[in-house]
Design a protein that fits this description.
Shape: globular
CATH class of the domain at 10-199: Mainly Alpha
Radius of gyration: 23 Å
CATH architecture of the domain at 10-199: Alpha Horseshoe
Distance between the termini: 46 Å
Structural class: mainly alpha
Strand content: 5-15%
Helix content: 25-40%
Number of helices: 20
Strand order of the largest sheet: 10-9-11
């Protein structure tokens, strides 16, 4: 098991082994520790054990079934899960995300809501239980910062949600009041500002510390114009400047090092979600994206399901020298022993070697081999289940740098922004270093993305991307952070999410910038109402 904790005594080690082996994340492993175990002035070991389960829950939120990844990427212009010829039925959920036709019954927003508020309820319980004890101040600050992170996710995706800090006010019989997006924004800002002096300034892998809290603040300031109608570019810069000045983080020499099986050694990770395929979470993306025959390529015991792939229009934006295009699995496919692997869904193609092509038909119809597959996270060979053990970075140092660059660009300092973007690009252009250099005027130009309805390799409508303000910088975000929970938020901030067409998608209303409150929640709480534009 990857360790994010210090050396533990036997009692606490027993607790943690239980936490990471538990498959039901609704369990409350804190109850294994008694008041006498904890004491009035707890040891560091006990403090670590008390916070462990709230981090374990993040694994389910991010990559559980219909998790946060789907919610941020499947509705974007980079990734789609189209219909495949194997007859796998998903109830239309991925089509709804692509077409922006979801409603209050959509599974992915429901999952985020339930998982986030379930964790918030647990956090509220533990904060209330230990906030009056001596020696718990740092742990309480950490838990409050983590609660603010959950509320940031809710702020971004739903906008208008209850803000609950009391115990048991999120159970099935509770009816907390709905807050405005401004009130949720202010809660996140105030909570993080208040606990900041008590947060750990050291690098503690996979845990909330001062620098992770600053990244959350930087994110809400970066998107403040969307959230509350007021730009806060300088405030965002102030937060990431502190992270940069700390000297604790740096860009990895290799882009792929951030996503390797052993990526917990990366100095670029500001905050990562810790996965272990044998004990916690379910990082199943190789199975979600690869063709079943690709099991032979990676010696997987379980066949993949053959779904998610890249939208060709995005692939066409890459510079041919940009090594980051290699996050996509493409071309002829071979088994680990070098022999060809073949198509298997359509009997007529069973003797044809599997060849992942760039072009796909539409969201409603594709061939089994169509579409580059997501390979950003290294796929460990010989995995026996349907999960891999790579940790998932939520905030990277590259993100901090790009936040500063974007804010400088929007504040009228394009050349300073270009210097930062060039720094981030350099590791992707080692063979042709000159191509890594970008200028301020280039960042201010439009996007290379050729927007419009697209089917079977043919652009049916022409919308282009030249009209997107700072479109080239928007492209840079896509190349650096594709398949990293970024694209929906970035598209909204750059005005693309509800204004452009891609693949089979057409614009479907400004209200799509947030999701609706789940219908089951509305039914249970008369104090809540649909978000604007939904009914």
């Amino acid at each position: 098991m990857k360790s994010i904790f210090i050396k533990l005594n036997p009692l606490v080690l027993t607790l943690l082994l239980f936490v990471f082996s538990c498959t039901d994340l609704s369990e409350d492993p804190y109850d294994l520790l008694t008041e006498s175990d904890i004491g009035d002035t707890p040891s560091p070991d006990v403090l670590e054990a008390l916070t462990a389960p709230v981090y374990t829950r993040l694994t389910d939120l991010m990559f559980g079934w219909h998790g946060y990844f789907d919610l941020q990427e499947e509705c974007s212009d980079i990734i789609v899960t189209p219909a495949r010829p194997n007859g796998w039925v998903d109830g239309g959920t991925y089509r709804n995300l692509h077409m922006h036709s979801w409603n209050s019954f959509q599974s992915q927003p429901n999952s985020l809501w339930n998982r986030a508020f379930g964790s918030i309820n647990l956090l509220n319980t533990r904060i209330a239980q230990y906030q009056t004890k001596q020696g718990f101040e740092g742990a309480i600050a950490e838990l409050r910062a983590l609660r603010a992170l959950y509320y940031y996710l809710l702020l971004d995706n739903f906008g208008n949600v209850p803000v609950v800090t009391e115990v048991d006010l999120l159970n099935k019989n509770a009816t907390p009041e709905q807050k405005s997006r401004l009130e949720v924004f202010e809660f996140v800002e105030n909570e993080l500002t208040e606990v900041m002096p008590l947060l750990n300034e050291a690098k503690v892998y996979g845990k909330m510390n001062k620098w992770t809290a600053k990244m959350v603040l930087a994110k809400i300031y970066l998107n403040a114009e969307v959230y509350i109608g007021a730009a806060k570019w300088n405030d965002a810069i102030a937060q990431v400047d502190d992270i940069i000045a700390s000297g604790l983080y740096n860009l990895e020499a290799s882009y792929s090092a951030n996503f390797s099986v052993k990526n917990e050694t990366s100095n670029e990770q500001i905050f990562s979600i810790v996965y272990d395929a044998t004990r916690s979470g379910w990082l199943h993306y190789p199975w979600k994206t690869l063709h079943p025959s690709s099991a032979a390529t990676y010696d997987l015991a379980e066949q993949p399901w053959g779904g998610s792939c890249a939208i060709p229009q995005f692939i066409d934006t890459y510079d041919t020298d940009d090594a980051r295009i290699n996050i996509w699995i493409k071309g002829l496919q071979f088994a680990s022993n070098g022999t060809p692997v073949y198509n298997s869904m359509d009997p007529a193609l069973s003797s044809v070697q599997l060849n992942y092509t760039k072009q796909i038909g539409s969201v409603d119809e594709t061939k089994e081999y169509e579409g580059y597959r997501v390979g950003k996270f290294e796929i460990e060979r010989g995995v026996t289940g349907t999960a891999i053990s790579n940790d998932v970075p939520l905030f990277r140092y590259a993100d901090a740098l790009m936040i500063k660059a974007e804010c400088l660009l929007r504040l009228g300092q394009p050349d300073a922004a270009a210097t930062i973007v060039t720094e981030v690009r350099q590791r992707a252009f080692l063979e042709n270093p000159a191509n890594a250099v970008v200028t301020g005027s280039e960042l201010m130009a439009g996007s290379k993305y050729n927007y419009g309805k697209y089917e079977n390799g043919v652009l049916l409508t022409t919308e282009g991307g030249a009209d997107i303000q700072y479109g080239r910088f928007f492209d840079e975000l896509g190349w650096e952070f594709a398949a990293e929970f970024h694209r929906r938020q970035d598209m909204i901030r750059f005005g693309v999410f509800t204004s452009k067409s891609w693949l089979s998608h057409s614009p479907n209303g400004e209200h799509r910038t947030i999701f609706d409150i789940p219908q089951s929640v509305l039914n249970a709480n008369p104090n809540l109402q649909h978000n604007p534009g939904y009914n």
